[in-house]
Specification:
Chain lengths: 393, 1096
């Protein structure tokens, strides 16, 4: 296989071997520390356009099962790993990882010292890098510099958000249509008592879901709890949403800088005042905070992994969370008369969740749906369901 | 939550002697715990019978009791020390069982003692099979179909319900003692009989066999507030069915999808919540390889071998954190000492691959059954770290010190296809190598997967290694190796020496080639967070990447070589020495650097040294660390044979050896050079010489006259040593020993049956310091590590002086700087030298503790330039006439190893040791024998005597005493006749080859409660005595194979001492007695005044 290099603007070069799609790329380079779930990660729209460096040293070990995809396609701009495992003749019919990336047009680089890249990003912050064919000694540095210079942190949400409204029926718990009706019996995840219904088909709640590039497991977590989910394009106006008379409103995760979503923020300001329960995750959390007048800023190198401890201040309990974000809400900028910080990161003290004190609105910065990552925080979906139940009665 | 205030004086129970299933990991855990508790200003009292541990060192706890781990003894110390808090989760199953017994009997409540950490009911829900199943049912976690049985009838009924094959698992045992897989009712009954006996509560679990599923483990930690995290996932190379301690283990788990991983992780957390764990817990799962169905196999609601592995694999100090949790803290209040910035409340992220391979004792027990199952057989383990699986595996393989550097074993290569197939059909210690050989012969991954169910991920990696190896082998010279192949080989962890061997050139050539390609060793840090945060603990592993994180500091520095995996003959004692040396170096201002590969030990704790290299101990790997660190010098005399083997390589590199030189180490090992030294010093040794061939051996033996002692040179622990009494045995011995190519000659010496004496001494080049002289209870012929060792030796003044004189002469002749260990034989009033080791020995920790002289600390400072006059211990013999007795007794793991003869000889067989301390001989001996796990037979019980002819006359007075003590005597033909003739009424019992009732049926029926059996020193193993002894071991009948040992046991029986009557001695006060009485001369044969009983 041919050689390729990752190049940063300071001229540092990391030579490796190509796999996946054979094409050059220029991306913001980040790192993620989870040890499992590469397919989930690749298909997470929040990674749109980013080159992800995985710290887990061997990738592709169990091949690819597409039914765990978090969206209809791969969004990651490029993948940088230490060592690649090939899968052939798998009992479960898993596809080879390299073949999967090739088929989906995502370039990969393996055989690089991923730890060195991680330490560089840790020390110098997230940076733009170019991946070009060639060996370190003869790679086209000028082209790389041009590409890096031309890179623009564009508004990514319109790229990943659906163009039309999608309806996800209640009790749906994955891509497989057959699983819809069995969900109610097999669902052991919900700790709250769901009201009895005559028909298993009948939905319990209607959730208006603003899709900024949502991970599907968020939607499944709602549908498996009996919600019908109406997923709207990110720029849908408040009146359209409210016209559907939702029992609750959900703001999904998504890529990029939340300040790029100014248009949505204006609509969110209206939505959170209605008294309809609102829950936000990740970008959704940042947008609600911005709607409340808070500020956000970009972290030096973000939080990406499945091991971040978060303290829920009310219960003084700590939960291990799945995270993927560059931006954080500034605690001091939150209007203390309207909301409280409900969750903080144990490692660096950053805001991990807020709760409005005058409206049934709460958010978290991390990913309670896991995928990849721990399932410890599913209880937050139960909490959202409980808010809808309470406001219905 | 803040630190708890309801306790102030805390007892930590250790795990006792090293046995299979319970090794050095609990010294590591206990030491961390004691230090964590002391940090919180608790008054810490430690009880452990194992003197070779760091945890029993002065300073680790406030008070240390090296006393038998017996419930009455523990109760006594609890009350005497006014203990109000008990930590039981750190002493393995032993510590947990005592804690449970104290809690369940109400003793803790009655005396206001709080069980710190997980509470008794939670532990019971985790440990008791029935309670556990109920608990799992309650939280909807799947278990394997099973049921507990209290009798054989139960077992049969349940097994029929579940359907064969089934697994028998005894409750409350270590390392799965007494368990096994049975495919038929007959097999099941055989296993269940032993299993019921092994269980403390006489209970076994009959369980559905789920062979072929993946075995996955999670280590979890939970605090009292309900916060919980998993520290590490681990995946067994071998599917379910092999004890995890005997499995190759990879961390983190590699073949699980996120869905599977999270499912098991969530389950582990639910379980620790249900058991209300306050501390650490291990959960083992079986996962179906394709359906994703899983089942909980078992939990260990305590610190375990797996938690030690998880700690070393991730850098997360589970024992320390668990101890802080027991102190009342919550996870978010405990700092992560590795990063210094984050908290203990997180899950480590790992950016490397960890491979653990067990170390089996089959190189010593050549004829033992090598199949692996639910009962653990490994004595120790090695761990390796690398950035790819292949290289991690290669590092682990060479860390095992099996004489191989890769996946190729010549004897396996020579097997026929049919033989190879037979080996692949069963699970054996060398499965990895059989699989590799099959791949080498072109078997497909598909085929091997179907046959073994080892995940294809692993098989594919083996194929990578075999392919590279074969490609290199096919190159005639290194120049034929393409650059791409060469780079791949280095990346995959092929050491220079191996590539050199495959291409028949010197290692130097390959090393130069590698360096010319700029493929240099570089070191990466283990930091718990995959680089996300800066880390401050320097804990490294090698890769061939460009960036080196182990940048050399400008400080003066010394490398201490570790001792590798725990094995018979090289145990935890050497780790003790390395740790102390590292501490001493720190104290005198050196940067201390340790290289070791054993995950169970204190030496590989990240804060024992200033820098830790988790690397194989081979010439290539050590050389690379030296090149990176450029130390002022290396210390090789503390890491046992593993380290001493490397002294020449290091010395040849031009690196300073601190301590005795490589040349003098060779002088002590080389027969000719050493004989010359003895001659010059005018010191006698048993007559003997060296041979290579059978013919030479026979003619030499004839000249010396039988019996003779034969052994290979350059070995530790008496490996391959035997007493040979006739030509046939000599021929057999030489045949076996020459199965392995012998680099060095075989030593043949006249065997003298005298009293063995042993000293450890420190020499500064001018003077010597001998802390004390030890005497072995068993006469020469039993390996010193297997004999009961008595300090002080009661020997004539003249002999004492001779020993001091010889020790001085030999130390000076060998230019010893640091430690020397010498073994003598006192035979017909003459002192002979039988062995000299210019390095630390097994007895160093024990003699250090009882005399109060920190021998390793003193030796290390001397190596670094101090002299004995800088210390207050004087020179010569320190404890000349101490009014104490410190008796060390060996502990064996025979019940874990089938087909191993329990009879003692010159080859070491014990896995651990215990110590009995007292001011009287009788009490010290009783403590030692009690602590070793010997079950004293009750009055009236049957004792079976069957001894060799030469022992029969010595047996008479002993049998008479046993009779007088009220025991019922049984003996086989010859022995019975002999005793009856001397008027000692003895029941004659038929031999095993005769029809029942015979000895075997008597043992099975429980009529025999002690066996005394001495065998002629035959190398032929398959004989009746062997089967008899095995039968007794399997039925838990104490077995004595030397009349010297019987004398000691009878002494104890005569005194009728009970555990509740013994007086515990605090170690510090014991050393004080030694110090204050050491030079008070008492006449020979007159015991110290406090001694009620004279030594024989």
């Amino acid at each position: 296989m041919s050689k390729a290099c990752l190049i940063f603007s300071d001229g540092s070069i990391y030579e490796g071997t190509r796999f996946g799609a054979d094409r050059d790329a220029v991306c913001e380079v980040v790192f993620a520390t989870g040890s499992t779930g590469y397919v989930e990660l690749l298909t997470d729209p929040s990674f749109c356009g980013q080159a992800v460096t995985l710290t887990h040293p061997i990738v592709g070990n169990y091949g690819v099962f597409e039914d765990v995809s978090e969206s209809e396609r791969l969004w990651v701009g490029a993948l940088i790993i230490r060592d690649l495992t090939e899968v052939e003749g798998d009992e479960r019919g898993a596809e080879d990882f390299d073949a999967y990336l090739k088929r989906n047009g995502v370039p990969g680089l393996y055989g690089v010292d991923t730890r060195e890249i991680v330490l560089k990003i840790r020390e110098e912050g997230t940076k733009v890098g170019a991946i070009l064919s060639g060996e370190a000694k003869n790679v086209d540095m000028d082209a790389a510099m041009e590409m890096i210079k031309a890179y623009d942190a564009r508004h990514l949400v319109p790229e990943v958000s659906p163009k039309e409204v999608t309806v996800y029926p209640a009790w749906h718990q994955g891509w497989d249509e057959n699983k819809i009706n069995s969900a109610r019996q097999t669902n052991k995840r919900s700790d709250i008592a769901l009201p009895q219904t005559e028909s298993l088909e009948e939905k319990l709640y209607k959730v208006a879901f603003l899709d900024f590039g949502a991970k599907k497991n968020i939607i499944w977590n709602l549908t498996m709890r009996g919600c019908e989910v109406l997923a709207f394009p990110w720029d849908t106006d408040a009146d359209t949403i409210l016209g559907q008379k939702p029992d609750g409103i959900f703001l999904s995760n998504g890529p990029g800088n939340p300040e790029h979503c100014g248009q949505a923020i204006e609509e969110i300001k209206k939505l959170i005042e209605t008294g309809i329960p609102v829950m936000g995750i990740c970008l959704g959390h940042q947008l609600i905070s911005l709607a409340l007048g808070a500020k956000t800023h970009k972290l030096k190198y973000g939080h990406r992994g499945a091991n971040h401890p978060v303290k829920e201040l009310e219960s003084n309990r700590i939960y291990i969370t799945s995270q993927n974000h560059s931006f954080v809400v500034e605690e001091d900028s939150l209007p203390s008369e309207r909301c409280v910080v409900s969750h903080v990161n144990v490692n660096d003290g950053t805001v991990e969740g807020i709760r409005m004190t005058d409206k049934p609105v709460f958010t978290v910065q991390y990913h309670p749906e896991g995928a990849p990552g721990p399932q410890d925080n599913n209880y937050l979906f139960d909490r959202f369901i409980a808010l809808m139940r309470d406001s219905k009665h | 939550m803040p630190k708890r205030t309801d306790v102030s004086r805390v007892m930590v129970i250790g795990s006792g002697p090293i046995i299979i299933g319970q090794a050095a990991e609990f010294d590591y855990a206990g030491t961390q715990a004691c230090r964590a508790l002391k940090q919180e200003n608790f008054f810490v009292v430690l009880v452990n019978s194992n003197p070779a541990t760091i945890m029993t060192d002065p300073g680790v706890a406030d008070k240390i009791y090296i006393e038998p781990l017996n419930i009455d003894v523990i109760k006594k110390i609890l009350l005497d020390e006014k203990i109000d808090g008990l930590v039981g989760m750190l002493g393995g199953q032993t510590g947990l069982n005592f804690s449970m017994e104290l809690a369940e009997s109400g003793f803790l409540d009655e005396n206001g003692i709080i069980l710190m950490g997980t509470q008794a009911d939670g532990i019971k829900r985790g440990e008791d099979r029935e309670d556990f199943r109920e608990a799992m049912l309650r939280i909807n976690e799947p278990c394997i179909p099973s049921s507990t049985a209290m009798s054989i009838d139960d077992c049969v009924r349940i097994a029929n319900d579940i359907g064969y094959p089934i697994i028998v698992r005894p409750a409350f045992t270590l390392g799965g003692t007494g368990g096994g897989i049975a495919a038929t009712e007959e097999e099941m009954i055989e296993i269940a009989v032993v299993g019921l006996e092994a269980s403390r509560v006489h209970q076994v679990l009959i369980e559905k066999c789920i062979a072929g599923w993946k075995e996955i483990e999670f280590e979890a930690v939970r605090d009292a507030n309900g916060n919980k995290v998993t520290i590490c996932s681990m995946e067994n190379f071998d599917p379910v069915g092999v004890h995890t301690g005997d499995s190759i283990v990879v961390a983190p788990a590699q073949t699980l999808t996120d869905h599977e991983y999270q499912k098991l992780r969530t389950s582990a957390l639910k379980i620790v919540e249900e058991l209300e764990i306050v501390g650490g817990c291990n959960v083992q799962f079986a996962l179906h390889p394709t359906s994703g169905e899983y089942a909980v196999i078992e939990v260990n609601p305590r610190l375990s071998r797996s938690s030690a592995l998880a700690s070393k694999a991730t850098g997360y100090p589970i024992a320390k954190v668990a101890s802080k949790i027991a102190c009342g803290y919550t996870l978010d209040e405990i700092p992560n000492e590795v990063t210094g910035k984050t908290k203990a409340c997180f899950e480590p992220a790992v950016d490397y691959i960890v491979v653990k391979i067990p170390k089996f004792p089959f190189d010593k027990f050549v004829k033992a059954k090598k199949t692996l199952g639910t009962q653990m057989k490994a004595t120790g383990e090695v761990m390796s770290i690398s950035n790819n699986f292949e290289s991690a595996l290669m590092k682990a393989i060479r860390s095992l010190e099996l004489g191989i550097m890769g996946l190729y074993i010549p004897t396996i290569n020579q097997l026929s296809d049919e033989e190879l197939f037979q080996h692949l059909c069963i699970v054996e210690d060398k499965r990895l190598f059989y699989l590799s050989e099959a791949i080498r012969r072109g078997q497909t991954i598909e085929y091997l997967y179907d046959l073994t169910k080892v995940d294809k991920f692993f098989l594919n990696k083996l194929q990578h290694l075999v392919t590279v190896e074969e490609q290199i082998r096919s190159c005639n010279t290194p120049e034929d190796i393409s650059e791409q192949l060469f780079r791949k080989a280095i990346y995959y962890g092929f050491p220079d020496a191996y590539i050199a061997k495959l291409t028949n050139v010197t290692t130097d050539i390959i090393r130069d080639l590698r360096k010319s390609l700029k493929m240099n060793y570089s070191y990466k840090m283990v930091d718990t967070c995959a680089g996300e945060y800066t880390a401050i603990t320097p804990y490294y592993y090698s890769t061939f990447d460009k960036m080196n994180e182990a940048v050399r500091t400008e400080r003066k520095k010394v490398i201490v070589l570790g001792s590798g995996p725990i094995r018979i003959g090289q145990g935890i004692e050497f780790d003790y020495c390395c740790v102390h040396s590292s501490w001493a170096l720190r104290d005198i201002g050196y940067e201390s650097i340790i290289i070791n590969n054993n995950p169970e030990t204190v030496s590989t704790d990240y804060d024992t040294s200033d820098r830790l290299y988790f690397e194989p101990l081979t010439a290539d790997d050590v050389r690379a660390v030296i090149e990176n660190e450029k130390p002022d010098g290396c210390i090789c005399q503390f890491g046992g044979q593993t380290a001493i083997k490397l002294i020449k390589t290091i010395s040849d590199m031009g690196v300073t050896i601190f301590g005795t030189s490589a040349d003098m180490v060779d002088a002590a090992e080389d027969r000719k050079r050493f004989d010359k030294i003895l001659e010059d010093c005018n010191i006698k040794r048993p007559e003997g010489s060296t041979v290579f061939t059978v013919e030479e051996a026979l003619s030499l033996a004839e000249k010396l006259t039988y019996p003779v002692l034969v052994r290979p040179s350059y070995v530790l622990g008496g490996q391959g040593m035997a007493i040979v009494t006739n030509n046939d045995e000599m021929i057999e011995y030489m045949r076996i020993i020459n199965l392995v190519e012998q680099e060095h000659p075989i030593l043949v010496d006249k065997y003298l049956r005298g009293v063995e004496l042993e000293v450890d001494a420190v020499c500064d080049g001018k003077n010597i310091l001998i802390p004390g002289i030890m005497e072995h209870l068993e006469r020469a012929g039993v390996h010193s590590g297997d004999s009961i060792s008595i300090f002080p030796a009661y020997i004539p003044e003249k002999v004492r002086d001779t020993i001091i004189d010889y020790t001085r002469k030999l130390s000076l002749a060998l230019n010893v700087i640091g430690l020397i260990n010498i073994q003598f034989i006192l035979f017909n009033d003459e002192v002979y030298v039988i062995e000299v080791n210019p390095r630390s020995s097994r007895t160093v920790p024990y003699i250090s503790k009882v005399t109060g002289i920190p021998i390793v600390d003193v030796a290390t400072r001397i190596m670094m330039g101090a002299s004995l006059s800088d210390f207050s211990f004087g020179t010569g013999l320190y404890a000349r006439y101490p009014w104490v007795y410190a008796i060390k007794a060996p502990v064996f793991s025979f019940e874990k190893l089938h087909d191993v003869d329990v009879s003692l000889g010159p080859e070491m067989k014990s896995t651990g040791e215990v110590l009995g301390l007292s001011v009287t001989y009788a009490e010290a001996m009783f403590k030692a024998i009690l602590a070793s796990g010997f079950k004293f037979p009750q009055k009236g019980a049957g004792v079976l005597l069957t001894v060799k002819d030469s022992d029969k006359s010595d047996l008479v007075p002993l049998a008479d005493k046993l009779l007088a003590l009220g025991y019922e005597l049984y003996a086989t033909g010859g022995t019975a006749n002999y005793l009856n003739r001397y008027g000692i009424p003895t029941n004659s019992v038929r031999k095993m080859e005769e029809a029942a009732p015979n000895v075997i049926s008597y043992i099975s029926e429980g009529k025999i409660k002690m066996l005394v059996n001495t065998e002629s020193n035959s190398t032929v193993m398959i004989n009746n005595g062997f089967r008899l002894r095995r039968k007794c071991i399997e039925h838990g009948v104490p077995t004595i194979t030397s009349l010297d040992t019987l004398v000691a046991v009878i002494d104890c029986l005569q005194n009728q001492t009970q555990p509740k009557d013994i007086k515990p001695y605090e170690l510090g006060s014991f050393a004080d007695i030694v110090r204050s009485t050491r030079n008070e001369i008492v006449p020979m044969n007159e015991a110290p005044p406090e001694n009620k009983m004279l030594k024989k």
